[in-house]
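Spend some time on this chain, tokens included, and walk me through the fold:

. . .
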Amino acid sequence: MDTAPTWLEDTTKDVTALPWSPLGDALRAGVPVPNGFVAGSGVPEESIRAAYETLKLRERTHFVAVRGPSNAILDTIGPDQLIYAMRRLWRESPGAILLVQRMVHSDWCGKAGWDGNAALRMLRVIANEGMLVLDPDTYVFNAATGECTETTLQQKQRKTIRRVDGLSTTIEVQSGRTALAANHLKQIAELAERVGSGIGWAIDDNSRLWLISIHPA
């Protein structure tokens, strides 16, 4: 039985930490991955609460993302809400190893994967303004030439933001939408190439790109 959370940068490729080991490897390699810890259902509640307090001090934020094998609960704040979120994910996936990660306050987020033959170096990027992927735009980026060859923008896009009172809200952007900047597309392609797989990513309110997840290309 697990007795304490394990920090992401310390995860190993054993059976208990395997789902998040690629992120731990990337973090140790210097890739910008939000810090966090992993915990199984056998970890005592007081240990999870203590790890949350440590993460809060390390990262200077109260907000975390709680990630399970097929679902995530974002923008969770406070130890009580964290415990509730973890219990909810364990009800969906009993025995799963969960990742509790510093929440990136993102202006953009999405996923990226290599399209077709990897030798062609064409990356398909889906992107949504805000903190959730709700109505994503699609881009096809040629990593060999550094150019976007195809852009499909939604006429309307729901955008989840964090208000000044700390609560999240979703608004709908109907006009004046702009595409993801070319330099950000290039950075996402470089990150996907560095990781060598498909990725989940987020760009924070300081325009810094973060690796959120790793998945098959």
